[in-house]
Write a structure and sequence with these properties.
The complex is a heterodimer of chains A (209) and B (235).
Chain A lengths: L1 H39 L4 H13 L2 H12 L3 H24 L4 H9 L4 H34 L9 H10 L2 H29 L1 H6 L3
Chain B lengths: L1 H19 L1 H36 L3 H13 L2 H12 L3 H25 L3 H9 L4 H31 L12 H4 L2 H34 L21
The chains are: A mainly alpha (209), B mainly alpha (235).
């Protein structure tokens, strides 16, 4: 374990974090824009929901390999696939969050003379935060999981030592890399919970779990 | 443009692969169904009774909710890899890994579904003289069905998709084709991917039918299209 740390596991862990952060950030930007658009114009819901759902059903091992002819044997291929998998989760959660404002609250906002944009930024978005963070948590941990499978096409991330070790049936390294992947997912999840608490101080007072 | 043509060509080749190699595909699909079905069977047998009982007595929310959070954070490849260390290559390892991945969504949804049945309905049933078992069976379970099944369907799709990774650990199934692009070429990859996606849809639809059959007629109208379940985080 120790001799492998510097040469194998540590670089793999760093690559894994990078792959995940980039994918979730881009996925969030796309899903957020799509959810805002759908919130305003309902007719966009069908197309975007179906598109992201179809992408979501493609087995990851297949998608990584199928993108290679288009985007090459590199990080781009992996990122395109990872971003694709985040879309469904993020889109559904952001949209559900935006739609969760009670009608009385929206009435009150209108009564106070808030414009549509003001209602969005001051009422709907803050109320949507818990759902948005919940979506980010799922998207992040599932991206960490899928990024292990990315090692099918690029020699990066924590899946790499797992696949290499599987071929040689090298137990210690399999377990070390697998445990690291699990710890990474749990730590990322915990960090996002803390972020949510910091962003929604009013929720704590109500004692929401 | 040439990419588009390549893609369309590949799609045609994939359909050809599905037809030409149907014996192989049928074989691997059967393995896939057996593995996923066994995993779902064990997971349902563990998670549904446990979740329903915990929900009925309104206890154990900490365990039920946090188990789901931890469970869904587990990378499937990592779970299978660790299972290899304990059980070696083969069906058992993969089955255990899939059960570990399927239990959390089912358990949490079952718990939340029963826990959140309106107290008034339960009170009314008690007032009518129903025993606790009758309350579970005739009031709580029917009202909990939509959320309960949302969890089961999420788990089923997840298990079918994840069973592809089983191939690296000797679990068989359609993943064997996906991991062997060298022999089966791109058409095999696309062909097997189509079959896996179809299986995932079929699993979802099958449990949807079961849900419909179990739902009392009076409640059937309310089957929401986009009910955000617990796993997608909106509670």
């Amino acid at each position: 374990m120790e001799e492998n740390w510097g040469s194998v596991l540590q670089p793999a862990l760093v690559q894994h974090v990078k792959l995940t952060v980039i994918a979730v950030a881009i996925g969030f930007a796309i899903a957020f824009a799509a959810a805002l658009l759908t919130h305003r114009y309902r007719r966009f819901e069908g197309p975007f929901a179906s598109f992201s759902a179809i992408v979501y059903t493609i087995p990851s091992i297949a998608l990584f390999q199928l993108l290679v002819p288009f985007t090459g044997l590199g990080v781009l291929t992996v990122e395109v696939a990872l971003v694709g998998y985040t879309l469904l989760i993020l889109f559904r959660n952001i949209l559900a969050g935006l739609r969760s404002s009670p009608s009385e609250v929206l009435e009150a906002a209108r009564g106070m003379g808030l414009t549509r944009r003001q209602t969005l930024t001051r009422v709907e978005l803050p109320l949507a935060l818990p759902a948005i963070v919940a979506g980010l948590r799922i998207a992040t941990v599932s991206t960490i999981a899928l990024a292990t499978i990315a090692a099918v096409v690029i020699p990066e991330g924590l899946g790499r030592p797992i696949f290499v070790a599987l071929r040689d049936y090298f137990k210690t390294e399999i377990i070390a890399a697998a445990v690291l992947a699990i710890v990474l997912a749990l730590v990322a999840d915990a960090l996002l919970v803390l972020a949510e608490r910091a962003l929604t101080p009013w929720a704590a007072r109500r004692g929401v779990a | 443009m040439s990419h588009v043509v390549w893609y369309l060509g590949t799609f045609g080749d994939a359909l050809e692969f599905i037809v030409d190699r149907r014996a192989l595909l049928l074989d691997k699909t059967w393995e896939h169904v057996l593995l996923s079905g066994a995993a779902m069977g064990v997971a349902l047998a563990i998670a549904v009774p446990l979740g329903v009982v915990l929900g009925h007595v309104h206890r154990g929310s900490f365990v039920a909710i946090n188990l789901a959070n931890v469970g869904r954070a587990l990378p499937s490849l990592a779970v299978i890899a660790i299972g290899l260390g304990f059980f070696g290559f083969g069906f058992t390892n993969v089955l255990v890994a899939l059960v570990i991945l399927a239990v959390p969504p089912i358990l949490t949804n079952a718990y939340v579904a029963v826990n959140e049945v309106e107290r008034e309905a339960v009170e009314a049933a008690r007032g009518m003289g129903m025993t606790p078992w009758q309350i579970v069976r005739r009031v709580e379970l029917p009202l909990a069905l939509p959320l309960l099944f949302a969890g089961i369907r999420t788990a089923a799709v997840y298990v079918v998709a994840t069973a592809t990774i089983a191939a690296i650990a000797g679990g068989g199934g359609l993943g064997e084709i996906l991991f062997n692009q060298a022999s089966y070429r791109t058409q095999g990859l696309v062909g097997a991917a189509i079959v896996v996606s179809a299986l995932a849809f079929a699993a979802d639809a099958a449990f949807g039918l079961v849900q419909r059959a179990l739902t009392p007629r009076g409640l059937r109208a309310e089957v929401p299209a986009l009910e955000p379940d617990v796993m997608t985080g909106v509670r």
